[in-house]
Amino acid sequence: MSAAVVIETERLVLRGHRPEIFDAYLAMLRDAEVMRFISGKPIPREDAWARMLRYAGTWALFGYGMWAIEDRRTGLFLGEAGFLASRRDMSPSTEDTMEVGWLLAREAQGRGIATEAVGAALRWADEHFPNLRRTCIIDPENAPSLRVAGKLGFVELARTVYHDKPIILFERLKQDQAASRT
Questions:
Q1: At what angle do helices 143-151 and 113-128 cross, to 10 degrees?
Q2: Kind of pairing, strands 77-84 and 7-8?
Q3: pTM for this model (two decimals)
């Protein structure tokens, strides 16, 4: 069984979700503003718990997954970032890709934390899973996440619909692919 690896950056610690962060995690998922572009509404307690367990299962089954983001100095929970092994009912599909995701508590937004955390996760994935494609889906109204994706080298692949809402599917090109597009 694989457990989440720990990654440290200048300001952050990325580690597996743990029961002791659940209250802070639930508070983030219950914040309607935070969830506006994810589910459109706050997530109930039991769904939040199932989400944490799903992340542990992703690490166990695939050797990668989502990390809880903590402030390196204070230890406070700031959000989550990492990789999903999704089986979404959408076309084009993200199956057989490392679908990149991130979500920050409101107080952590606008400070470059998503870019720092996702950048660290991508560097780790490039080393450990170099042959898997990286994708992400973003609501076209989510300007902050669109900026993060652009900074990290994601390019638009398709516009589609997921759960009856428009989304943009992005792919992060490898360096040689990106160079051939310019």
A1: 40
A2: unpaired
A3: 0.92
Q: Report whether 82 contacts 25 (CB < 8 A).
A: no
Give the up-direction half-sphere exposure of residue 101: CA atoms within 13 A in the CB hemisphere.
Answer: 20
Work out the widest C-alpha separation in the chain, in whole angstroms: 47
Closest among 94, 22, 95, 15 to 53, alpha carbons compared: 22
Q: How far apart are CA 36 and CA 25, in angstroms?
A: 16
Query: Cα 166 vs. chain centroid, distance in angstroms?
Result: 19
Helix axes 45-62, 22-29, angle to 10 degrees: 110
Name the 3-class secondary structure at 10. coil
What residue type is assigned to position 121 of the chain? Answer: A
Provide the 10 A C-beta neighbour count for residue 68: 23
Low-confidence ranges of the chain (pLDDT < 50): 1, 176-182
Q: In the chain, count of helices (H) and strands (E)?
A: 6, 8
**Token couple for 115:** 């870019």
